[in-house]
Amino acid sequence: MGAEVVIEGLTKSFGRQTIWRDVTLTLPPGEVSVMLGPSGTGKSVFLKSMIGLLKPDRGKCMINGVDIVRCSEHKLYETRKLFGVLFQDGALFGSMNLYDNVAFPLREHTKKSETEIRRIVLEKLEMTGLAGAEKKLPGEISGGMRKRAGLARALVLDPEIILVDEPDSGLDPVRTTYISQLFLDVNAQIDATFLIVTHNINLARTVPDNLGMLFRKELVMFGPREVLLTSEEPVVKQFLNGRMDGPIGMSEEKDQAQMAAERAMFEAGHHAGGVEEVTGIPPQMQPAPGLPTRQGAIRRKDRVMQILHTLPPAAQEGIIESLSPEEQARYGVHPRRGAYEDPPTINTTPVPPRHSGELPSEEVARIPGAHRRTQGPGGA
Ligand SMILES: Nc1ncnc2c1ncn2[C@@H]1O[C@H](COP(=O)(O)OP(=O)(O)O)[C@@H](O)[C@H]1O
Ligand SMILES: [Mg+2]
């Protein structure tokens, strides 16, 4: 199982410039979390602080009982081995072929024989869809392949935590989806804890178990995906819809006067860009068929059900709707508004097996926007 990461009151400044302050969050073991934030909000600084490449001014970052912020050099060196990091550009050595790039951490940090190294390198290249490409130089392959090679290299020391910086940078939307699929596939196979930082809305909506957002030097929110995806918090809502109307402006944030002037403009019908406001929670991407079920997702279900009563109503509803009727029965919960005109009654008695041809209700509930159609004029 991946390691849990507990971050408490983490604050980082460079000289007099505070990057973010008082960041408190827990990355649950083996779950996939995404941290959103506009450019320049300190996402990369956050990842670097987590592995001790940068020193925060205050706060803790605990991994297996070690505080990365304050531990000895020796402990830091040891704890860093638990991390696999995929930097924005893949950070491959341009003069080395993929095989040597991926073998590098093994040669550097272990005393393994070349035979053993070969076995591991080929396994990770296979896992990331790069079998047969070992002789290629980074300059000879596509951006997507470079990212996958960076991931293969991040995997060779069997990391418990994988940090990914903007996996979509330089990739088209289709390649971004492929790399997202790969993260979930890898997560299913090794159960590592993932933190992906990005400003990609689509990835944030469909990939993680948990979502967070950095803005105005603070962690605005962090929690189960359903919480942010149904949030009415203006910053979160604006960001997840990629729109111009809201507190986030061209350079970073807007002042009150600008907000008011723009509100009038958008109310008068000026297109705010982005996607049409999406209600409901899109289905989460799943590991490819044939791969094991994500253990992190199984643990998350229990974890989230335990804190369910503490979450906002819309998030509760989304979580309940994402459960199968059997799970709803097991947890003793039932959806308040179903996807049907006449919602099926779900009680705690065992659910009869569904017959073929019938559309399973949990799949209906997962169709984005399938519920809440009755809200608002015209629904969109
Ligand atoms: N080593 C550094 N020294 C001084 N300032 C830095 C350093 N690294 C990053 N910054 C500043 O921290 C802020 C956040 O940067 P970054 O983490 O790269 O943002 P993001 O990854 O969210 O786009 C920026 O203003 C950047 O200039
Ligand atoms: Mg960055």
UniProtKB/TrEMBL annotation:
- Residue span(s) of domain ABC transporter: 5-241
Instruction: Identify the stretch(es) annotated as Disordered.
Output: 333-380
Read off the SUPFAM superfamilies from this record: P-loop containing nucleoside triphosphate hydrolases (SSF52540)
Q: Which CDD domains match?
A: ABC_Org_Solvent_Resistant (cd03261)
- Example GO molecular function: ATP binding
Q: Indicate yes or no for the key word Nucleotide-binding.
A: yes
Could you tell me which Gene3D superfamilies the record lists for this protein?
P-loop containing nucleotide triphosphate hydrolases
Alphabetically list the UniProt keywords. Answer: ATP-binding, Nucleotide-binding, Transport
> This protein's superkingdom?
Bacteria
InterPro entries cross-referenced by the UniProt entry: AAA+_ATPase, ABC_transporter-like_ATP-bd, ABC_transporter-like_CS, P-loop_NTPase
Pfam hit, one: ABC_tran
The protein in question is named ABC transporter ATP-binding protein
Q: What is the lineage of its organism?
A: Bacteria, Bacillati, Actinomycetota, Actinomycetes, Pseudonocardiales
